[in-house]
């Protein structure tokens, strides 16, 4: 239930306004702006919320043929990646101008939706210490709380997902073995504890860090 609530908290706006199987996928910019505003006003060194266009059934990326950001008076190109991540600007003007995001999928029959993903930015192998993972773990926790809003985080906090630590995805199998660390192929889960706060011990691996996400207890 808690993991389902997380998906609801982070994905509802995209699902409600953007699910469609037609030549163009259209969704309002305001839901993205609200989440980008949380990042802009917070003090997050690594934690971010990113936006992906994914298949509604499989959550696999929906390939993008083209995209644009449209208001009543302007059109500008949408930046995106091969993994269908939408690289949106933080713009109060676009929010006030009621901008919409228009995406043409590679497959016009694809059922797509927006996926909101909390993950790391600029976190590399040089940061792979207990101290930095502790910092990132708490940034994720704070960001999740901020995104959920006052009502859920303060009055219904018991419904929020229980975060155990962080999940690190590597480009290749990391061959890591340490207390509190469990790995399966290229993904390792780090159970972060309070005694990691000032511990500069490093996790040494030749596997390159691809991304870090919260480890949520299901």
Automatic annotation (TrEMBL):
Name the source's superkingdom.
Bacteria
* InterPro entries named among the record's database cross-references: DUF2987 (IPR021370)
Which Pfam families does this UniProt record tie to the protein?
Answer: DUF2987
Task: Specify whether Signal is a keyword of the entry.
Answer: yes
Q: Which UniProt keywords apply?
A: Signal
Q: Does the keyword Signal apply?
A: yes
Question: According to the UniProt entry, where is the signal peptide?
Answer: 1-21
| Protein name (database record) | DUF2987 domain-containing protein
Source organism (scientific name)? Pseudoalteromonas rubra
